[in-house]
Write a structure and sequence with these properties.
2 copies of one chain form a homodimer.
Chain A (H helix, E strand, L loop, with lengths): L2 H12 L2 H13 L2 E2 H5 L6 H13 L3 E6 L2 E6 L4 H31 L1
Antiparallel strand pairs in A: 1-3, 2-3
Chain A binds a DNA duplex through helix 4.
DNA sequence: TGATAAGTCAACCATATGGGTGAATATTGA
DNA sequence: TCAATATTCACCCATATGGTTGACTTATCA
């Protein structure tokens, strides 16, 4: 998987309210089991399990299995990719603006 | 539409490669027409038009119509919401970690 | 005025997504 | 050993998504 697909996965995973809530819960509570996470939502355990899988595939959550219990933990590092993308956009934007400025200034010279 | 839905829209809009490319083009080139944008992609004008609509509904793009031409421009401000969300997550994370640290230190006391 | 150009709208298609249920698997504990 | 627990897997369903084509509207300009 290339960087672009990875970024798409992260953004798509983060683009769902339930999944963002799961992430928030993990960030504030630390590692939690699937059932424990599911108790916060009005949807089946299975649906929550599927959301967790999406987060996991985006690298936003890691799993530690102890016996029959799966402990999920938030992994914020991948979100840096989205910040990096935004920062890149802003830098391109600034480049263009400064180029425009230079153009206007040189026109003033004439 | 509440903040959460708005954030979902932004993240979903940004979660597609084609749409991110459109945003990048607009950031580096400034306002561009739909046809001009579409020329960069191997898909129909209509498909690009639909992607633009998604970006527009997320507030990531604005439209200025002059006669039959529609000029699209990038709007980076909504992306700050995603940064704010990330920042909030990080601050919750730090809160928990410092609470943990305090706990461990007080245990050392005993 | 009439052809062409720029876009959107509407309908369609295949696949993805978010939800559900029931069965299967693996671990625990009595 | 056997029942209960934790979780995933395999389907199923409705709706969303990303793409297509064709028709429609509005401007432009020869």
């Amino acid at each position: 998987m290339n960087d672009d697909e990875r970024l798409s996965r992260i953004l798509k995973a983060a683009g769902d309210t339930t999944r963002r809530k799961i992430l928030t819960l993990l960030v504030q509570e630390g590692a939690l089991r699937v059932t424990s996470l599911a108790s916060h939502f009005e949807m089946s355990l299975n649906s929550v399990s599927k959301h967790i899988k999406v987060l996991e595939e985006a690298g936003l959550v890691t799993r530690r299995t102890l016996g029959r219990e799966h402990f999920m933990a938030a992994e914020l590092e991948p979100l840096k990719r989205t910040e990096a993308w935004f920062a890149e956009l802003k830098s391109i934007w600034d480049l263009r603006l400064s180029a425009l400025e230079t153009m206007i200034l040189s026109e003033d010279d004439q």
